[in-house]
Amino acid sequence: MKVEKAIEVRDLTRDFGSFRAVDHVSFEVYKGQIFGFLGPNGAGKSTTIRMLNGLLLPSSGGGSVAGLDIVKDHGRIKEIIGYMSQRFSLYDDLTVQENLTFFGGIYGLKPARLKERSHQVLSLVDLLDRRDQPTRTLAGGLRQRLALASSILHEPSILFLDEPTSGVDPNSRRNFWELIGDMAQRGVTVLVTTHYLDEAEYCDRLVLIYQGRLVAQGTPLELKQALPGRVLRLRPDDLSQALEAVQGLPQVLEANIFGDTLHLSVPDEDEAETKLRAALEARGISCRRLEEIEPSLEDAFISYIEAAREESQP
Predict the structure, then answer these.
(1) SS3 assignment for the chain
(2) Pick from 9-13, 167-171, 250-254, 289-293: least confident
(3) Average pLDDT over the chain, rounded to whole?
(4) Taking Cα atoms as reference points, which of 296, 163, 159 lies closest to residue 220?
(5) How many C-beta atoms surround the C-beta of residue 195 within 10 A?
(6) Mean pLDDT calculated for residue range 218-242
(7) What is the maximum alpha-carbon separation in the chain?
(8) Scanning 22, 38, 151, 237, which has the fewest C-beta atoms within 10 Å of its C-beta?
(9) Domains (range + CATH), the chain
(10) Across 53-62, 257-266, 291-300, which has the greatest mean pLDDT?
């Protein structure tokens, strides 16, 4: 069974004067996927989203969204997608229902359909009992859910979420991702940008963008498994001194601080362990724990970013 493409991007590029914000990015998103766009702030995630939803034209390259060309049909794309930006637009002086009525008017919903869809989306995001509550009194997580309800009121088949959980508490973030998963199960395609690595695990597929360039793509598992060598976790008494001691060892491919531990990428665990302990003892640093661990997405993220940085150096 052939899976339908929802989004296709080919060498997408966007310049702002002499600054290249997005540099020849290409990827495909299939119907019903949760597709994650991962990268640090300023990497080009939001600029790419704006080109795909018709708000910004590319400098070169192209693509399609739901079969519509992002250059020729950019005006029509805005009518058929859902879009929730980082600073989702809600009107504080209106109630929850009045916000939905306002957005329903923008989407051209007839009164009977608007009433039906308002009930459906408020039920979905668990805000039905707050429909008459002033929006300004909602907590951050509830405002987030109302913004999602507003963006799916017109039943879009493709939903763009630009860092939708930024600034909300962990419990609200978890609940929000449950909603996203439910929509994907019903066939909605979701493209979501995030810099939260734990959220990236919910995605069916990820692309990692850095300085406007796509540096890695695959499933979360594929990205982790593509890391070279093994990952060791080291818990020393003196973190900064330990990092300095191991960074120059030929047996260590990468060394990065994770909380109160070091994560080390090594080609051979046994040889690396011997050299690591010797290097630490030479500096009088005791090691409370040294163990092999499964690489995390954060390990993969740092590894790909470091490789991209080295490649970009003159």
Answers:
(1) CCCCEEEEEEEEEEEECCEEEEEEEEEEEECCCEEEEECCCCCCHHHHHHHHCCCCCCCEEEEEECCEECCCCHHHHHHHEEEECCCCCCCCCCEHHHHHHHHHHHHCCCHHHHHHHHHHHHHHCCCHHHCCCEHHHCCHHHHHHHHHHHHCCCCCCEEEEECCCCCCCHHHHHHHHHHHHHHHHCCCEEEEEECCHHHHCCCCEEEEEECCEEEEEECHHHHHHCCCCEEEEEEECCHHHHHHHHHCCCCCCEEEEECCEEEEEECCHHHHHHHHHHHHHHCCCCEEEEEEECCCHHHHHHHHHHHHHHHHCC
(2) 167-171
(3) 89
(4) 296
(5) 16
(6) 87
(7) 77
(8) 237
(9) 5-223 (3.40.50.300), 228-294 (3.30.70.100)
(10) 53-62
Mean pLDDT of 120-128: 92
pLDDT of residue 96: 96
- Angle at which helix 170-185 crosses helix 140-151, to 10 degrees, equals 20
The total number of residues shown for the chain amounts to 314
Classify burial at 26, counting beta carbons within 10 Å of its beta carbon; exposed 0-12, middle 13-18, buried 19 or more: middle
Q: Encoding tokens for residue 283?
A: 């500096």
